[in-house]
């Protein structure tokens, strides 16, 4: 991939801090990571609705949705997974600069890739949320029928089956969707955001 040359970053005269003051909340990335079927997308949708209801400016980036457009040229090799997350990280960084509380729901199986996104953002702007759910429970749910296909050999390099998932070492939050209801999981995150001063 060739890199752009002769380009200069143009600073805005409106700062991130000024956008936060206008919005009455901070901006950050809530990075949901976990196995397929753990509930990342369902949780991010429910959380966004809750945040919107209390006047928080949000945008949600979802793994499948992004692969329909921005990343439709990427497959699921380790290299393509890394590039997928790199692009999402760059988009999420722009959205944080725009003053949004940005929710991202991606398996993002590799710690190194998630850490690289964290490095893009300022301190306290990357909140890693581990959506914890056992492989057995995710397979039982199998909302898209993907585990069944993976077990049958129809899908190769499927996370948790024949491709690795690296659990976060030190996430800001762990949400146990195997043992908590959707509403309980949403409230755990809202409580955290209030306690840490992201929202009021």
Offer a concise description of the structure.
With 200 residues, the chain is α/β, with parallel strands linked by helices.
Structure notes:
With 200 residues, the chain is of the alpha/beta class. It has a single domain (19-195), classed as Rossmann fold. The protein contains eight helices and five strands, in the order H-E-H-E-H-H-E-H-E-H-H-E-H. Strands 2-3-1-4-5 form a five-stranded parallel sheet, with helices on both faces. The longest helix has 20 residues, at 78-97. The model has no long low-confidence stretch (mean pLDDT 92).
Our count of helices gives 8
Low-confidence stretches: none
Mean pLDDT comes to 92
Report Rg: 17 Å
The biggest beta sheet is recorded as: 5 strands, parallel
Class by alpha and beta content = alpha/beta
How many domains make up the 3D coordinates? 1
Could you name the key traits of this structure?
single chain, alpha/beta, Rossmann fold, five-stranded parallel β-sheet, 5 strands
């Amino acid at each position: 991939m060739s890199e752009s040359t002769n380009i200069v970053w143009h600073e805005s005269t409106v700062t991130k801090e000024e956008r936060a003051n206008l919005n009455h909340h901070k901006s950050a990335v809530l990075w949901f990571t976990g196995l397929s079927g753990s509930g990342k997308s369902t949780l991010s949708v429910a959380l966004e609705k809750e945040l919107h209801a209390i006047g928080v400016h949000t945008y949600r980036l979802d793994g499948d949705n992004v692969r329909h457009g921005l990343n439709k040229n990427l497959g699921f090799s380790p290299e393509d997974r890394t590039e997928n997350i790199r692009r999402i990280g760059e988009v999420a960084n722009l959205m944080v600069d725009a003053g949004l509380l940005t929710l991202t729901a991606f398996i993002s199986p590799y710690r190194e890739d998630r850490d690289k996104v964290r490095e893009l953002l300022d301190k306290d702007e990357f909140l890693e949320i581990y959506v914890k759910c056992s492989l057995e429970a995710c397979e039982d749910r199998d909302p898209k029928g993907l585990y069944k296909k993976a077990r049958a050999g129809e899908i190769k390099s499927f996370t948790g089956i024949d491709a690795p998932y690296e659990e976060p070492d030190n996430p800001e939050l762990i949400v146990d969707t195997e043992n908590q209801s959707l509403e309980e999981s949403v409230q755990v995150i809202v409580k955290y955001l209030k306690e840490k001063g992201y929202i009021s």
